[in-house]
Amino acid sequence: MSSKTLLLVKTFLKSTGNINVLKFSGDKSKRKYATNSLIGQIVLYIVFMLYATLLSVGLANFGQARALPELCAILLLGIPIIFTLIKANGYLFGFKEYDMIMAMPFSVKNIVAAKFLYMYIKSIPMYALISLATLIGYATGGYLTFMSCIFWLVMTFTLPVIPMVIASALGAVTVKIGARFRYKNIAQAVLIAVLILPVTFSGFFFENTSGTEDIEDMMHSISGGISGTATYIPFAKWFSEAVNDGIISSFLLIVASAIIIYEIFFILISKFYRRMNSQLSASIDNKKIDISSQKQKSMVKAIAFKEFKRLTGSSIYLLNVGIGPIMVVLLGIVMLFINPEAIISSIMSEEPIEASLVFPAIPLLLYFFIGMIPTTVCSPSLEGKNYWIMQTLPINPMDDNKGKILFNLYLSIPFACFTTTTACICFRVSLLDAVTSIIAIGSLCIFSTVNGLRSGLKHRKLDWENEIEVVKQGMAVFMYIIPHLITGMLLIPLVIAANNFLHNTAIIMLFIILIAWLLTALAWKGVKKYTTQ
């Protein structure tokens, strides 16, 4: 690694790091934002680590500790490839400061390598914590030795390089293919979504673990699922051999593979890097424009259309926001062809539950996915350096807010209502239950939209250099998504338990509607409070 590459990486980290802001900035608002952002990241990391630690210690306590190296390897391969696919294009291609950096006395390989290492450094804390959690479980099982610990730690930092390079290469392919289309950003987002969804759903390798007679059988089943998955992944097999059996050649294979794949990728990508970025910035629209009439829209609808153009103008933004609605639509299509009772009985083989008791949780499940990242969380910050333009126009700030809300409702409610309708058909519920369920999911979509805007306005960040800083790493996203994840996981079983007691879906839906509108009213007060007048 050359000194120029290290210099660039150091510069990138200093220009975007929250720690650097706390160390040198005298601006109280920036220091507060940096502090809150760090706290949000730490909380998210702790949640991931706790879940992984509980699983690994549970496996170790039931004599399945030898499966933990394979689990660690699978996580260190699967999670990076998904996350890197989502954000690689924003880091490596078409970034904001491209022209300025390319004009500096650095080679293309230096620039690409520095961008990749910057992405690696920003991502590695989460991967390291997950690896540490499984290492704790492995030590609990009594298998940890000094040499296996050294192997484990070294491979923790080298193994993620392989999926990140592969994902970056796939991202480069999507850039190359997407650049040929008129709507290149939409094409790239669709291509990346096609790559991500199979990888995401392939992670469900724990089949029928909930229906086992006791927790020991469940842990044996999970261990079998891990081992079965690892047989198809050579890197997971080598990781296990190095840690469990002390095979040095397996350890060297992983380290050597990471280095070789890294070098080959950057040698190849450097040859086409300028051309690919030129294609991204070029326009291929040769359509003749004939202005025959102009459509007049209200101010709110015009702002909603502006939000639509902003969404489709960024593949990173489109992918992160659109993945939830895509999953909801796919779930809705699948529900038209399944028998809910058969699936529920196979999952709960010991004590099967009636499908009608599970149905009230469907709107909450859909809200969990479709409300994951509403556009309103990101759009206030994405205005960036163009924020002053909106401030100088004769537009009421509340109309701007209403336009942002309207666009996200266009994006979420139709998909949510479609899947809720297919769920009603699938579960064969009554007309009253179906109507109240559709109103409930609509109310939840409105709440997530308004609450997202409240978070987006409160934690607005305009001085970003890369859209990923807002879309994936922004304080507004952290402060919205952490409560969303926690409440979603808690409310789903709570609603099933309540329906088991009441046996009345309509009443539960009306209660959800009431709570959603009360929370929406509180969120709307926050929107008014944080709106710049």
Write structural notes for this entry.
With 533 residues, the protein is mainly α. It contains 24 helices and no strands. The longest helix is centred in the first third of the chain and has 34 residues. The radius of gyration is 25 Å and the shape is globular.
What radius of gyration results from the CA coordinates?
A: 25 Å
Biggest β-sheet description: none
How much strand content do the residues show? under 5%
Proportion in helices:
over 70%
How many helical elements? 24
Order of helices and strands: HHHHHHHHHHHHHHHHHHHHHHHH
Q: Quick one: how many beta strands?
A: 0
The coarse silhouette is: globular
Low-confidence blocks of residues: 203-213
What average pLDDT do the residues reach?
A: 79
What would a concise description of this structure say?
The protein has 533 residues and is mainly alpha-helical.
Descriptive tags:
single chain; mainly alpha; 533 residues
Task: Compile the SSE list and pairings.
Elements: H1 3-16, H2 18-24, H3 28-61, H4 68-92, H5 98-102, H6 108-140, H7 146-158, H8 161-178, H9 184-201, H10 215-230, H11 234-244, H12 248-281, H13 299-312, H14 315-335, H15 340-347, H16 355-358, H17 361-370, H18 375-382, H19 387-392, H20 397-427, H21 431-458, H22 468-471, H23 475-502, H24 505-530
Helix pairs in contact: 1-2, 1-6, 2-3, 3-6, 3-23, 4-6, 4-8, 4-9, 4-10, 4-11, 4-14, 6-7, 6-12, 7-11, 7-12, 8-9, 8-12, 9-14, 11-12, 13-20, 14-20, 17-20, 17-21, 17-23, 18-21, 20-21, 21-23, 21-24
